[in-house]
Amino acid sequence: MRVIGLLLVMIGGLVLGYQGLNSARPGADATPAPERATDSISSVPPVASGIVVVSGLLLLASARRSED
What we know:
Elements: H1 2-23, H2 34-37, H3 46-67
């Protein structure tokens, strides 16, 4: 359980960090180009990444309690 929790925290943190870097690019236009507006780009919402991080932390906490 500890390994799964650690992986969830790492993956969730990486996704949150990537979204922050992706949205803060210098020189990015605020209005999307017409060809970009029709692309079907799927991204993970920040709420889902936060849920993954929190669930990983809960798994880590429960693994520590079960060891005691």
